[in-house]
Amino acid sequence: MAYKIVRFYSYNHRYGTTESLGEVDIRPNLYDSFLEKEVAEESLRSYGVSITDNILRLITIVDVKSLEEAINRSRIIFEETNDLLMRYPMAKISSCSDAGYYIDLEKKQIHPFLQPEITRDSFGNMFHINNGVYFQINPQQFIASGRDDELVKSYFRSLNWFNNGSKQNRLYLRFLYSWISLETICKYSDTETIVPRLCLAIGFPLKNDCIKLSKVFIQELLTKVDNYRQWRTFIFNHFEQCRIIRNNIVHSGFKETDIDVDDMRIKMYLINYVSQTILSLVEQIIASAKTTLVEAWDNIPLRIEGNINLIDQLNGNLIFTLKNKDTMPFLFHD
Fold first, then answer.
1. Under 8 Å between Cβ of 31 and 133
2. How far is CA 11 from the centre of its chain?
3. How far apart are CA 305 and CA 231, in angstroms?
């Protein structure tokens, strides 16, 4: 049996037309039919949602044996879509719990999902600009269109752990989720350490990785980046300590009170910085038709060396923030 599952999400990016991300269509309320509008308002009213203009529709069609299977399958599909939508600049998305509706395509019947109250949040509104009749394809659409290869699967796992980490209220869990996010996109095998790849990705290659970059580029880093060698050692030491903390949490008699909050603020800043950098690099590499982690990490040195803004990013962003710790984001905020 085929079901069309529609879920509602509050999103601070405005859509003026329908956009496709793999198995999911994303559209604004403008294109609801009269019946869809009626059912949507009924569902949203059950949550106390009175302003419905900014509520996006995420739509997928699944062919399964029962409605329950359709609902469960759609949850997985929409979760991946949410992870992709979070990659847009300053994105803030929240589900209206299970609000929405479904259509039994065989019986041609439409039914609302009626569930308990929800909480909504908004960062503000971002507007998508239409480039003519169709949107120009973006990295999220490209990634959503090919989910079967190793690199895309690793990307989705990493993105999921990264986003879930930001939701954790316990410091050690936020750290652990964020570190696992990096492991899923950096490791080929369980015996590897990811620290050298983390250093490489943000422009501080260790000895064995320097041979992957030109001597001219390495010399530019040494001469143009403020106290480059000292910061390379500083960053390496913090990442190595992160690896040890991760192992202690997972394998040893870890106590949360052992965490130095001020020190962890530095480590979480570095983790978030390298996570955003690697995810952006991998998005570019997926778009270049690479399909494996090995291909991705073989390609990353070329992209690092081709980044004409790298030195300015290191001096004006990363190193500046490490030198001025008051500018670092707080670990937890309202």
1. no
2. 15
3. 19
In sequence order, the 6+-apart residues with CB closer than 8 A to the CB of 32 are: 40, 57
Give me the mean pLDDT over the 296-311 stretch. 93
User: For the chain, what is the total number of helices (H) and then of strands (E)?
Assistant: 13, 8
Give residue 293's Cα distance to chain centre: 17
**Strand pairing partners for 62?**
3
pTM value is 0.71
Question: Which of the residue ranges 96-105, 139-148, 190-199 would you say has the lowest mean pLDDT?
Answer: 139-148
225 contacts 232 by C-beta, under 8 angstroms = no
End-to-end CA distance of the chain: 44
Residue in the block written with tokens 């690896």: 243
Closest listed residue to residue 261, CA positions, set 328, 314, 181, 317: 328
C-alpha gyration radius of the chain: 22
d(CA 164, CA 167): 5
Of the candidates 230, 326, 328, the one whose C-alpha atom is nearest the C-alpha of residue 272 is 328
Given a contact cutoff of 8 angstroms between Cβ atoms, the answer to whether 204 and 215 are in contact is no
Q: List the structure tokens of 220.
A: 């530019």
| Per-domain boundaries in the chain | 2-119, 146-327
- Name the amino acid, one letter, at 284: Q
Q: Name which of 269, 275, 272 is nearest 321 in CA terms.
A: 269
Q: Convert the pLDDT of each residue in 151-187 to its tens digit.
A: 999 999 999 999 999 888 888 899 999 999 999 999 9
